Amino acid sequence: MAAGSAAMAGIAAPVQAAPPEGPGQCKTFDDPQWSGWTDHAELGKALRDIESTSAGRVRVEQVGTSKQGRELWAARVGTGDRVLMVQSAIHGNERTGTEALLGILKDLGTSRDAATERLLSSITLVALPMVNPDGGELNRRMNVVPWDQVVADYPQLAGAPTAWYHSPSGDGIDLPGFDLNRDFNPDLDYVPQPGDLPGAQTDAGFFLSPESRTIRDTYLALREEFGAVDAVVDLHHMGPCGRTTGGPQDGKLISVALDYPPLGVNDGAAYKEQYPLLDQDKSRRYALSVARGIQAAYGSQSPLAGVGRYLHPQEREYAGQGRSAFALNGSATVLFEVRGQQDDLGQKQKGMLIQSVRTGVESLIAAMASGEVDRVNGDEFFALPDYGWDTTATD
Fold first, then answer.
1. 82 by DSSP, 3-state: which?
2. pLDDT at site 343
3. What pTM value is reported for the model?
4. 134, 144 Cβ separation under 8 angstroms
């Protein structure tokens, strides 16, 4: 793979995309077909097959267990000092990232050309391709855990109010659970305390679920091994009909929206004294490298090239998201928001959405390996087009 290129040579051949959708043509489906998406059992087999085919270049490990007893997998490839951790499907119904990571791991594990060898000597990629398998089995955003099981894990919380991001049901399914993307704390040694509950949207989370603790523990193990984790990428979906605003892509359906950590006013100035490693410009450089890689790979006319900035007003503050917690510990963090849930758009656009994610992640790997990510101007991230907000866009 060409380590310095905007898109790595290992990118799969472009899939046949759905016909371009102009204004008023964002078609969604209420009852989509689900065949073809990798479920949890299939994921375990796919990862073991990749490990075997790679002759040991890709190493697969169970790093945790979900609340309902499903394995949480991590796959590692590369021997370089620059470390990239990528997680997918923390919201169980957002799964294009899982498919993209499987494709990336397969190519990195089997390509034996000199460019790939150089790439893998520069970076270490650790992929967590399905971190909320319990929610994934139900096609819902949240995991599955009753509050009394949380109290059983943390008896000190008996009698305390439930955390604000725990719900008795979700996504039309009458089962309790957490929005796992609110269950992180920048104090990576934090132990839940009853006086901190219920908390609020702008506050840090409490590491109440085994899935979020597994992600944290994977990050900590990498930091102990390497001294630092250069970057963390979080792969999500957003609403199906957002469009770019301004510039040559004005009015086009967006493919991927990108963001850096949402930490309130003045780039998280309120956090700097306690967390001096926070570097918002670094996160913007990494996000910009993703955007430029996608644009370079597809040109301005392809629907795959519709890349822009995710909604990020000054007052938006989510300290309990993993990308915020890890950024406060010194990592660059990048949010991917792919247009549409898979159950909004159906199978027809599956390949296109997976390809967008894959190209973005591969572009970041290439930019890290070449050092290009260190040379771009982070302020130019703000020149990317914004997009028209729709009510179902959420991370």
1. strand
2. 56
3. 0.91
4. yes
